[in-house]
């Protein structure tokens, strides 16, 4: 069914309009179809090449073996591994969002502090946080906590920079308007600055969910006994490429689903508290 | 008539990186209750800064400002400020927007809310109260911004280029609209604009400022006798009188505008 806006819906569709809508729908379908076809072709090609022996399935694995591994993993607690990775990612992600926003708020509050912190933020932002891995393990202890701290470390500074940038570039006219009503700094933040930056917040969430996952996988490579990162490293060490490939594929799905989750929350929140122009 | 505002030798010097800048120099004038005072001057003469000082948003370096007989210290609650943009918060409904000032000042009493509802009703926004700013026209948004300002019942309104973001036709009707409301509510207002005809059409008196540092160059009474049965003449009507052109020439000469090629 076509979605019709009120104004257009009342008038009967002209022939040109109908043709235009039809053409657009066809195009959308064509794009979807191509996307699916590419995936199917790649998988089929992979399977055939492995079967006829052009590629070595011991090194490259193959789709049917991936499926088989998937079946075996279900007995070996695949869900547990996925769950561990998701939990660590969400924990690091949420910590990063909350702490990042609190730090950004503090720096927004004090112009002096933010000027002082500037060079530190720049250096910390440029530093590849994965390099801190060994330090984090020693400080936080080898275990899940180290992995969560890793995810936090990777997403924190980006959040601070992004949110602070957003807070500081809020329309000064809006702030002046609030000041003319004698708004306190706190009121200015809660009523003007923060709601003005919901889009900034969700943009940073979308970047951070991916970054947190990077942190978690890197952490799992280093210390864990569970999680998708662990499966990948373990598979590599025992030269079980089927396990590695299966884990990578699941990881891709997890990453996509987590991102999707954030966009869903974004839509729900924006629909609930603000009016978005259609 | 009661004297609402009295400025005495208000001066402002501010420190910039490359030296001291004198923005305003000994500005003195008074405003009586119910008066509309236009302030015009070349761009950069400190008109907007003057309003900020009167509102208490920034302190003057020298001089005194009495509002209803009391000195202005900090942002005064007797003042309502209208800026160039309507600054409606697009995540709030119109009702929630016009209540913002009362909400910030923690004055959301039943009586005040009823007062605002009444304003919405009187000025044709009641049926749009649950809509969002993006669903309203520029003129209606500006009217909503005015109601937000009136909600806190200010004694003095400061209009800082309040119409210059609107297109020409909307600007004419909105300034007519807003002035009608201000007259009806018997408000006193300082109207800063760079637009000479707009100033003449809205003001009872016009204060001409000089180039930086802004000084009071001259003050002119705008006399547009209301027609029988009226108490005042609205901006659009004023624009159609012969006196309007004469005042325009007078202010134009006073401003001494050179053709600047920028």
Give the radius of gyration of chain B.
18 Å
- Total beta strands of chain A: 0
What is the CA-atom radius of gyration of chain A, in angstroms?
Answer: 25 Å
Q: How far apart lie the N and C ends of chain B? A: 45 Å
> What is the chains' assembly state?
heterodimer
List unreliable stretches of 5+ residues of chain A.
Answer: 1-8
Helix content of chain B: 25-40%
- Strand percentage of chain A lies at under 5%
Question: What is the H/E string of chain A?
Answer: HHHHHHHHHHHHH
Shape of chain A: flat
**In terms of per-residue confidence, which ranges of chain B show pLDDT below 50 for 5 or more consecutive residues?**
none
Report the CATH topology name of the largest domain in chain A: MetI-like fold
Largest interface: A-B, 21 and 24 residues
**Structural class computed from helices and strand pairing of chain A:** mainly alpha
Quickly give the CATH architecture of the largest domain in chain A.
Answer: Orthogonal Bundle
How large is the share of residues in beta strands of chain B? 25-35%
Total DSSP helices of chain B: 9
**Main pleated-sheet profile of chain B:** 6 strands, mixed
CATH superfamily of the largest domain in chain A, by name, is MetI-like
Written description of the protein model:
- The complex is a heterodimer of chains A (278) and B (262).
- Chain A starts with 5 loop residues before the first helix and ends in a 5-residue tail after the last helix.
- In chain A, helix 5 runs antiparallel to helix 6.
- Helix content of chain A is 83%, strand content 0%.
- Chain A contains 13 helices and no strands.
- Chain A has two domains: 13-66; 76-273, MetI-like (MetI-like fold).
- The model of chain A is unreliable at 1-8 (pLDDT under 50).
- Chain A is mainly alpha-helical and 278 residues long.
- Chain A has helices spanning 6-10, 15-52, 57-60, 63-75, 78-109, 111-126, 133-140, 144-168, 172-180, 185-196, 198-223, 228-237, 241-273.
- Chain B is α/β, with parallel strands linked by helices and 262 residues long.
- Chain B has a domain at 85-153.
- In chain B, 33% of the residues lie in helices and 25% in strands.
- Chain B has nine helices and ten strands.
- In chain B, the strands form two sheets. A six-stranded mixed β-sheet of chain B has the order 6-7-8-3-9-10, sandwiched between helices. A four-stranded antiparallel β-sheet of chain B has the order 2-1-4-5, with helices on one face.
- The termini of chain B are far apart.
- The mean pLDDT of chain B is 87.
- Classes of the chains: A mainly alpha (278), B alpha/beta (262).
- Chain A binds chain B through residues 171, 173-174, 176-183, 187, 191-192, 195-196, 198, 273-275, 277, and chain B through 55, 57, 74-75, 77, 79-81, 83-85, 87, 89-91, 100-101, 103-105, 132, 134-135, 152.
């Amino acid at each position: 069914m076509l979605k019709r806006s009120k104004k257009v819906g009342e008038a009967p569709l002209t022939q040109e309009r109908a043709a235009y809508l039809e053409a657009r729908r066809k195009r959308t379908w064509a794009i979807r179809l191509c996307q699916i076809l590419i995936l199917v072709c790649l998988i089929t090609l992979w399977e055939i090449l492995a079967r006829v022996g052009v590629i070595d399935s011991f090194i490259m694995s193959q789709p049917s073996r991936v499926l088989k591994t998937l079946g075996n993993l279900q007995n070996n607690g695949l869900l547990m591994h996925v769950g561990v990775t998701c939990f660590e990612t969400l924990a690091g992600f949420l910590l990063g969002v909350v702490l990042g926003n609190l730090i950004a708020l503090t720096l927004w509050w004090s112009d002096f502090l933010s000027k002082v912190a500037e060079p530190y933020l720049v250096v910390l932002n440029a530093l590849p946080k994965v390099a801190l891995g060994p330090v984090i393990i020693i400080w936080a202890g080898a275990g899940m906590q180290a992995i969560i701290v890793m995810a936090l470390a990777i997403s924190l500074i980006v959040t601070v920079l992004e949110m602070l940038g957003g807070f500081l570039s809020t329309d000064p006219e809006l702030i002046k308007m609030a000041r003319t009503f004698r708004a306190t700094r706190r009121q200015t933040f809660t009523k003007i600055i923060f709601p003005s930056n919901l889009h900034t917040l969700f943009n940073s969430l979308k970047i951070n969910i991916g970054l947190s996952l990077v942190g978690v996988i890197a952490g799992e490579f280093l210390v864990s006994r569970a999680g998708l990162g662990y499966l990948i490293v373990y598979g590599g060490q025992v030269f079980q490429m089927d396990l590695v490939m299966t884990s990578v594929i699941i990881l891709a799905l997890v990453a996509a689903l987590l991102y999707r989750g954030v966009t869903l929350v974004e839509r729900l929140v924006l629909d609930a508290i603000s009016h978005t122009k259609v | 008539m009661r004297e609402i505002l009295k400025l005495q030798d208000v001066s402002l010097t501010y420190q910039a990186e490359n030296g001291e800048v004198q923005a305003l120099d000994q500005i003195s004038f008074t405003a009586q209750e119910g008066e509309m005072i236009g302030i015009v001057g070349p761009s950069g003469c400190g008109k907007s800064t003057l309003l900020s000082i009167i509102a208490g948003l920034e302190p003057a370096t020298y001089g005194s400002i009495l509002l209803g007989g009391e000195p202005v210290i900090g942002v005064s609650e007797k003042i309502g400020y209208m800026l160039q943009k309507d600054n409606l918060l697009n995540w709030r409904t119109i009702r929630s927007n016009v209540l913002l000032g009362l909400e910030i000042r923690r004055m959301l009493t039943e009586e005040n809310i009823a007062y605002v509802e009444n304003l919405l009703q009187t000025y044709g926004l009641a049926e749009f109260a649950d809509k969002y700013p993006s669903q309203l026209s520029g003129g209606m948004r500006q009217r909503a911004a005015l109601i937000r300002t009136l909600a806190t019942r200010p004694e003095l309104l400061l209009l800082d280029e309040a119409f210059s973001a609107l297109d020409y036709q909307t600007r004419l009707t909105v300034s007519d609209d807003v002035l009608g409301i201000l007259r009806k509510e018997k408000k006193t207002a300082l109207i800063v604009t760079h637009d000479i005809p707009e100033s003449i059409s809205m003001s009872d008196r016009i204060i001409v400022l000089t180039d930086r540092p802004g000084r009071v160059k001259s003050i002119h009474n705008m006399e547009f006798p209301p027609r029988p049965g009226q108490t005042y003449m609205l901006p659009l009507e004023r624009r159609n009188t012969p006196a309007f052109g004469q005042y325009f020439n007078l202010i134009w000469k006073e401003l001494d505008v050179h053709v600047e090629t920028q």
